[in-house]
Design goal:
- The protein is of the alpha/beta class and 383 residues long.
- 37% of the residues lie in helices and 18% in strands.
- The chain contains 13 helices and ten strands.
- Helix 10 crosses helix 11.
- The model has no long low-confidence stretch (mean pLDDT 96).
């Protein structure tokens, strides 16, 4: 039976909006992590079959197939191709899925999967904003087919996060406690040096900028809600950020030919979608199906990474799956560390792999909510 192995995983530190990475061209940011990945694994870059990068809002410095451009600006071999994909927040996690599927199919032996996003330079939803000059306010608002199927109602992640908080009766205080824990866990990880091995510093910038020291429940309680009468505030949402991250996925043949040491086996990959108006509920049914298909139960998973798009998303997921939050986002999540959309999937997976190794755990499960109501699930088995 064919296997897909992860033999390397690296990321940049995550920069906050307007922070240390704000002025870095997206291709150079992606190129930096690609150079680091090749150097750390010791693989001949010329043996790589493909480079698959996630990225959203692919305009400006992120346009023109940034996966290919990033590889080239890194000075890597010109014959290696690259492709950029968009599954919204799950784009680079999907890149890992495509890489693993290529290896498992026998059509590729070494595939780079990663992502890049400079949200400071290219603000979130820039592609939609650009579309306004052509008369389109969103990808679907002017679509008669969409209106016929889903009606004339607001579709946004902010509304979804509020709907989830209401349906699962998640109080603002409960969500603020979760958000505070995210910052505290991230800061504890930084102070203990747990991220050092997974980060490729960009110049002198080597530490994630998002986690806030000195934040408190009292400070969070003073924030205005994102929507009038709502429960969600900026403190309960992921941070706007800049980063790049990448993994190297290898076949058994590549492991033997290049003398590589597998760090994890890709045990399961799947994607499932839910209601696009609710949008952020996808991780719940997607996780259930992934566990069923993999033959694993919640108790078999040592660590979970559930992207903290909003506190309500993770808390509703944990309640539905009956997962102890002590095993979820143990080194903080996107509320503290930030959510550089196209790069988050492989950023999470890089951190998950390193933490499994640190703890000696066996299985790690990662799931993300994504635009359109979608959710990717990956289960890694540490070797």
């Amino acid at each position: 039976m064919a296997e897909a192995y992860i033999v390397g995983a690296v990321r940049t530190p995550v920069g906050k909006r307007g922070g240390s990475l704000a002025g870095v061209h997206s291709a150079d940011l992606g190129g930096h992590v690609l150079s680091a990945l090749m150097a750390r694994t010791g693989v001949d870059p010329g043996a790589v079959d493909d480079v698959i990068f996630g990225c959203c809002d692919t305009i400006g410095s992120q346009a023109g197939d940034v996966a290919r451009t990033a590889w080239l600006v890194a000075g890597l071999p010109v014959h290696v191709p690259g492709v950029t994909i968009d599954r919204q927040c799950g784009s680079s996690q999907q890149a890992v899925h495509f890489a693993a599927q290529g290896v498992l199919s026998g059509t590729a032996d070494l595939v780079v999967a990663g992502g890049v996003q400079n949200m400071s330079a290219i603000p979130i939803s820039s592609a939609m904003t650009v579309g306004q000059q052509f008369g389109f306010t969103t990808p679907f608002a002017e679509s008669p087919g969409w209106a016929e199927r889903f009606g004339d109602q607001e579709v946004s992640q902010f509304r979804s996060a509020e709907l989830i908080a209401e349906k699962w009766d998640l109080s603002r205080a409960e969500m603020e406690e979760f958000a505070l824990a995210s910052h505290e866990r991230a800061l504890a990880a930084i102070d203990a040096g747990r991220f050092v091995d997974e980060i490729a510093p960009v110049g002198e910038f080597a530490v994630d900028e998002g986690p806030r020291r000195g934040t408190s429940l009292e400070k969070m309680a003073g924030l205005a809600p994102l929507r009038e009468g709502g429960r969600l505030t900026a403190a309960l949402a992921s941070g706007i950020s800049d980063a790049a991250s990448a993994l190297l996925v290898a076949s058994e043949r590549a492991v033997a030919d290049h003398g590589l040491t597998p760090r994890a086996r890709v045990h399961h990959v799947s994607v499932l979608a839910d209601d696009p108006v609710w949008m952020l509920t996808g991780p719940i049914p997607a996780t259930r199906r992934a566990l069923e298909r993999s033959g694993l139960g919640v108790g078999d998973i040592d660590l979970f990474e559930v992207n903290e798009a909003f506190a309500s998303v993770v808390l509703a997921w944990a309640r539905e799956l009956d997962v102890d939050l002590a095993r979820v986002n143990v080194n903080g999540g996107a509320i503290a560390l930030g959510h550089p959309i196209g790069a988050t999937g492989t950023r999470l997976m890089t951190s998950l792999l390193h933490e499994l190794e640190r703890r000696g755990g066996r299985y790690g499960l990662q799931v993300m909510c994504e635009g359109g109501g979608q959710a990717n699930v990956t289960i890694l088995e540490r070797l």
